[in-house]
Amino acid sequence: MPLQDEATMFWKHLDFPHPLPHCSGKRVFLGHTPQPGGNVLDSGYFVCIDTYCFGGGYLTAIEPATGETIQTDRHGHARRTPMRTIADRFGKATRFLGSKIQSLTRPKS
Fold first, then answer.
1. Which InterPro entries does the entry mention (predicted)?
2. What's the pTM?
3. 82 prior amide bond cis, ω within 30
C-alpha cells in the first residue's frame, strides 16, 4: 500500500477485468465501486462492499472473520433477506416450543 498514491487508494473504482489475487493470499475488502443491485460483490479473494447507499441502495458492514453482513438503507432500516426472515421466525418458534415442552415434561413437586 505504501507504493500506491492516495487518489488510487481512496477513489479509484475497481477495473474490469478484475485484478488477480494478491500475492500474499489475503482477501481484500474495498469500496468505491458501487454495486447498483445492493449486493456485495464477493469474488473469493476480494470483497466489494460499496452497495450503492448514495443511490438508494444500502450501507454495508462486514465482519471479516465470519463474513456476516449487515445492511441498512439510508433511513436506518435493516435489510432482511427472505431466508433470514424465515430463519429468525423458525428460531423463535423453536425456542417457544422448546420452553413449552420443558414445562410439560418437568416433574410436578
1. Metallo-depent_PP-like (IPR029052)
2. 0.62
3. no
Rounded Cα distance, 62 and 86, in Å: 21
74 contacts 59 by C-beta, under 8 angstroms:
yes
Rounded Cα distance, 95 and 108, in Å: 22
d(CA 109, CA 102): 15
| Residue type, position 108, single letter | K
Contact status, residue 79 vs residue 73, Cβ threshold 8 Å: yes
List the chain pLDDT tens, one digit each, 109 residues: 677 777 777 677 777 788 889 899 999 898 888 998 889 999 999 999 999 998 999 999 999 888 888 999 989 999 876 566 566 666 666 776 777 666 666 666 6
First-residue to last-residue Cα distance in the chain: 69
